[in-house]
Amino acid sequence: MFKALTNAYINGQRQQTLIMDDEMITWVGHDADARLQECESIEDCQARLVTAGLIDCHTHLIYGGKRFDEYEARLNGSSYEDIARQGGGILSTVKATRACTEQKLFESASKRLLHLISDGVTAVEIKSGYGLDLETELKMLKVAAKLEQVLGLKISKTFLGAHTIPPEYIDNRQDYVDLICATILPEIKPHADACDVFCESFAFTLEESKKILQAAKELGLNLKAHAEQLSATGAAAMASEMGALSVEHLEYMDEASVKILADSNTVAVLLPGAFYTLKETKKPPIDLFRKYHVPIAIASDSNPGSSPVLSLRLMMNMACQFFGLTPEESLKAVSINAAQALGFNDLGKLQKGYKANIAVWDAESVAELCGTLGGSLLNKSYSYSRLLFES
């Protein structure tokens, strides 16, 4: 069955036609009259903007509990690190998530994910990391798989057991690192696509992070790293040299590390929601990324503490406002570059041979897409040619 979207604004050109079969984009261009005769359905987009479906390549959507007391604490002067060292932050969510049933986690995550879908997201990454034990980490990854099956969008599942040291291992952190490498990683391998680590002063050291990523690499998992968010750790360079798909946050990344990143296929993932929520002032080195042609992606970092965000389009706006990206760079950052950050080589472009993950917008330009705050601009979206959302 062929479907057609006509009179669309696609890839910077107006009055375009896109044709898709049951899964793929089969044609994009002008003068489609002959091809339209093969289509069972034809929709006039009425000059609407049509883009690749948005890809949110860094989220923590599955968790128990809430942490808005920390929002208030930060307003009163507490830092992210202060809260973490006092037993709040990630550890408070770990406690709540361990107590949740799989069904409860599925129900709460579904609501959050539906918000992202209604904002144009057709593919997403979901990290674990609020279990910090085998049982709960597996529970989270199974919920992510169920979300993909039930809601119908592509989900990349990332193991983040190295999110922070669990309370029961505070005095024996090496034992926890060894547990991840020797026991947890082999068990979660069938349920995960990638392994992430959080390299920071109150999380994992550079040496510990490298050991975990090496163990994951040997099992065939893709690699990622939370890097250079609150301090310069060297994790971005280390992970990119190991072949990581992406390194993420990057506010404290220096030029030497950017050069190393440029010599790899690793994507720089920026998270303006966390930058905003934590009232950070040091920005990622955008000019260096441009100078060395490092691909930039943007993601929501949706999580209960440092980035309680449910709109990827808002992140596009923040990336333009705070980091100086252009609207076109911002769109590329949530489409083709975000796809690269997840290893989704067949998503992120409106081009023949790519999966038909498509968003149709009640907007006339990419600038309008990025510049509009609030409300809903999504007219409809498709995931693998199947209607995912319709306003």
Defining key terms:
391 residues; alpha/beta; Urease, subunit C, domain 1; TIM Barrel; 2 domains; 4-stranded mixed sheet
CATH architecture of the largest domain: Alpha-Beta Barrel
Report the end-to-end length measured between terminal Cα atoms: 23 Å
Average predicted local confidence, pLDDT: 96
Helix percentage: 25-40%
Topology:
Layout lengths: L2 E8 L2 E8 L4 E5 L3 H4 L4 E4 L4 E4 L1 E3 L11 H8 L4 H6 L4 H10 L2 H17 L2 E7 L6 H18 L2 E9 L10 H16 L5 E4 L8 H13 L3 E6 L7 H7 L4 E4 L5 H8 L4 E4 L1 H6 L8 H6 L4 E3 L13 H12 L3 H7 L2 H7 L15 E4 L4 H6 L6 E6 L2 E5 L1
Parallel strand pairs: 1-4, 6-7, 7-8, 8-9, 9-10, 10-11, 11-12, 12-13
Antiparallel strand pairs: 1-2, 2-3, 5-14, 14-15, 15-16
Helix pairs in contact: 5-6, 6-7, 7-8, 9-10, 13-14
Could you explain how this protein is built, in words?
The protein is of the alpha/beta class and 391 residues long. The protein has 2 domains: 3-52 and 348-390, Urease, subunit C, domain 1 (Roll), CATH 2.30.40.10; 54-342, TIM Barrel (Alpha-Beta Barrel), CATH 3.20.20.140. The chain is 39% helix and 21% strand. The protein is built from 16 helices and 16 strands. The protein has helices at 33-36, 68-75, 80-85, 90-99, 102-118, 134-151, 173-188, 206-218, 235-241, 255-262, 272-277, 286-291, 312-323, 327-333, 336-342, 366-371, and strands spanning 3-10, 13-20, 25-29, 41-44, 49-52, 54-56, 121-127, 154-162, 194-197, 222-227, 246-249, 267-270, 296-298, 358-361, 378-383, 386-390. The strands form 3 sheets. The chain has an 8-stranded parallel β-sheet, with helices on both faces. A hairpin with a 2-residue loop joins strand 1 and strand 2. The longest helix is centred in the middle third of the chain and has 18 residues, at 134-151. It is globular and about 70 Å long. The model has no long low-confidence stretch (mean pLDDT 96).
